[in-house]
Amino acid sequence: MSHREASLNKEIKKVISHLLAGIDFPEVQLVTVTRVEIASDLKDVNIFVSVFPFEKSKETLEKIRNKKNSLKKKAAQRIEIKNFPEFHFKKEEKNEAADRINRVLNKIDS
User: Fold this and answer.
1) Which of 17, 70, 90, 92 could be bridged to 34 by S-S, CB 3.0 to 4.6 A?
2) Number of folded domains in the chain?
3) What are the pLDDT digits (tens) for 11-38?
């Protein structure tokens, strides 16, 4: 990963996290941008989102995807890049897997 890619990943994560904090997600306690991966050609960016409670992930991600163009426009006003990348919001699977493992371990301890 180039310095430019790493820098853009960090900046996009920061800006999108801030923008998502301003959106009302009923019945959701926490929406977190866990990581951002921009393509080497800078045309696409995968934005991984974690939602708590996990059961609300599908609906919340759908709401975020419906606001994709608005989020992209607002982010483009804050981040200097010639051709702004296309956003692809994805569900972060790692946190859910860790939660399932913790629940199993807690049951074993009980």
Assistant:
1) 92
2) 1
3) 999 999 999 999 998 888 889 999 999 9
